[in-house]
Amino acid sequence: MDKSSCFYLGKIVSKYSFKGEVLVKLDTDEPEIYENMESVFVSLGNNLVPFFIDKCRLHKSNLLRIDFEEVKTENDADRIMGSELYLPLSFLPKLTGNKFYFHEVIDFTVIDSKHGDIGTIVSINDSTSQSLFEIEKDDKELLIPINDEIITMVDRDNKIINVTTPEGLIDLYLG
C-alpha cells in the first residue's frame, strides 16, 4: 500500500499506559467514525506497515486511544511514537452535494459564473488559514479560496466545480 492510495488519519502523540497503548491525534471532523477500526497503516521510514488493533476508543474529543496487537510495552510504543497513521481511501465515507475531499477534486475543471472555464485544479493549498484551489490555465496559476460562498456546485460525474468568484479576483490572474 502506498500513500497515494491512502489518506492521513492522524499522528501518534503520546503513550497512554505502560502496556503500550498510544494516543493518536486525529485529523478529522468526525472522530467517532474511527472508533472501531480493526487495522491501520503506520508510516515507518518510507513504508506503510499494517498494524492490527486489539482495542480502539475515543479519548476526550479528538484523541483516539489505541491498543495495537503488536505493541505491548512502553519500548514498543516508543518505537512508533510520532508516526503518522493512514487508511485506504476506500474507508472515507462518500460525500455528496457540494462537500468533497481535497484529493477527489484534483483534475476537475473550474467554471466561473462570469469568466467561464478558468482552468483545472492541480492541487489544494491547505497550509494557509484559508484553503485554496491551485488552478492552472494557459501556463498561469490561479488561487481561488475554497468556501461555501464561492462554490456553487460540484458535479462529480463531469468533473466540474462551478464557482462565483469575488469581483476582480479572476482579472488579477488572467486580466
How many structural domains in the coordinates? 2
Q: Mind summarizing the main beta sheet?
A: 6 strands, antiparallel, barrel
Q: Can you list the strand order of the major beta sheet?
A: 1-2-5-4-3-6
Task: Tell me the span between the first and last alpha carbons.
Answer: 44 Å
CATH class of the largest domain: Mainly Beta
Cα radius of gyration in angstroms: 20 Å
Strand content: over 45%
Oligomer: single chain
Q: Supply the CATH superfamily name of the largest domain.
A: RimM
User: Which fold name is given in CATH as the topology of the largest domain?
Assistant: Elongation Factor Tu (Ef-tu), domain 3
Helix content: under 10%
Low-pLDDT regions = none
Report the average pLDDT across residues: 92
Can you walk me through this structure?
- There is one protein chain.
- With 175 residues, the protein is mainly beta.
- The chain folds into 2 domains: 3-91, Elongation Factor Tu (Ef-tu), domain 3, CATH 2.40.30; 102-174, SH3 type barrels (Roll), CATH 2.30.30.
- The chain contains 2 helices and 12 strands; from the N terminus they run βββββαβββββββα.
- It has helices spanning 74-80, 169-174, and strands at 6-15, 22-26, 39-44, 47-59, 63-68, 84-88, 109-112, 116-125, 132-137, 140-145, 151-155, 160-163.
- The strands form 2 sheets. It has a 6-stranded antiparallel β-barrel with strand order 1-2-5-4-3-6. A 6-stranded mixed sheet has the order 10-9-8-7-12-11.
- The chain is elongated and about 60 Å long.
- It starts with 5 loop residues before the first strand and ends with a helix.
- The model has no long low-confidence stretch (mean pLDDT 92).
